[in-house]
């Protein structure tokens, strides 16, 4: 998930770069960062860095503490569950619409995405699989003409995403994730709305089965 200044304002570039590093665990929970350090690293002035820090603080990815500094937030499992709940209830409706609206080009895009996921089983990284997972869901939103809805829920998804990436990094049995994507795709093609909805719900609950184990493995990463 590389970002360049050409893709938007300097503030947005800084924001997206730091956010990606937090979600991908390049910046771990509890890490202290500074405007000066980030500005020098990204070769930008301190003003856009400060603005990006404020935006990330609003998403609860950073904590800004007077006299202490700016610290990468620990994962809040309540925020994880809230984001998962929102996604489950929106995506089970979205996938039902996709069963009706999917076209040939959409079918090809999902087939290509799943083929790339299968390659990840052989020689990919967990970051690549996470990005393909995100693209799979995004395509379904695009099939239903609900891109704005996707953009809105993405802003609430940061803690959920961090846990998902940690799960993929800690548990290398990625086959269950990919098999569920295949089931969702098959149900959409068959226009089986009830099956598509049920598999989507199961898929988005997957992280629930491992979050306590992940917390035991990495207690310093969680509130």
Topology, element by element:
Layout: H1 10-23, E1 32-33, H2 35-42, H3 46-58, E2 62-65, E3 69-72, H4 77-101, H5 104-123, H6 126-143, H7 147-155, H8 158-170, H9 175-189, H10 193-204, H11 211-217
Helix pairs in contact: 1-3, 2-3, 4-6, 4-8, 4-9, 4-10, 5-6, 5-9, 6-8, 9-10
Short descriptors:
223 residues; globular; Arc Repressor Mutant, subunit A; 69% helix; 3-stranded antiparallel β-sheet; Four Helix Bundle (Hemerythrin (Met), subunit A); mainly alpha; 2 domains
CATH architecture annotation name of the largest domain: Up-down Bundle
Count of domain modules: 2
Strand order of the largest sheet: 1-3-2
Note the gap between the termini: 27 Å
- Average of per-residue pLDDT values: 91
DSSP helix fraction? 55-70%
From the spread of the alpha carbons, the general shape counts as globular
Q: Radius of gyration from the CA trace? A: 18 Å
- Structural class by SSE content: mainly alpha
Q: Provide the CATH superfamily of the largest domain.
A: GntR ligand-binding domain-like
Low-confidence stretches: 1-7
């Amino acid at each position: 998930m590389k970002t360049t200044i050409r893709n938007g304002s300097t503030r947005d570039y800084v924001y997206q770069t730091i956010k990606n590093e937090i979600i991908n665990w390049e910046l771990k929970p509890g890490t202290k960062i500074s405007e000066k350090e980030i500005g020098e690293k990204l070769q930008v002035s301190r003003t856009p860095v400060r603005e990006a820090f404020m935006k990330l603080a609003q998403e609860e990815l950073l904590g800004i503490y007077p006299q202490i500094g700016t610290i990468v937030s620990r994962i809040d499992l309540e925020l994880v569950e809230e984001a998962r709940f929102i996604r489950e209830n929106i995506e089970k409706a979205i996938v039902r619409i996709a069963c009706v609206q999917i076209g040939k080009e959409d079918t090809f895009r999902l087939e290509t995405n799943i083929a790339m996921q299968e390659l990840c089983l052989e020689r990919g990284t967990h970051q690549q699989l996470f990005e393909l997972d995100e693209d799979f869901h995004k395509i379904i939103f695009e099939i239903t003409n609900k891109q704005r809805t996707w953009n809105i829920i993405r802003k609430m998804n940061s803690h959920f995403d961090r846990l998902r990436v940690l799960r993929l990094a800690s548990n290398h049995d990625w086959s269950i994730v990919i098999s569920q994507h295949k089931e969702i795709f098959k149900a959409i093609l068959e226009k089986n709305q009830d099956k598509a909805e049920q598999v989507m719900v199961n898929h988005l609950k997957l992280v629930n089965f491992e979050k306590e184990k992940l917390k035991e493995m990495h207690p310093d990463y969680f509130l």
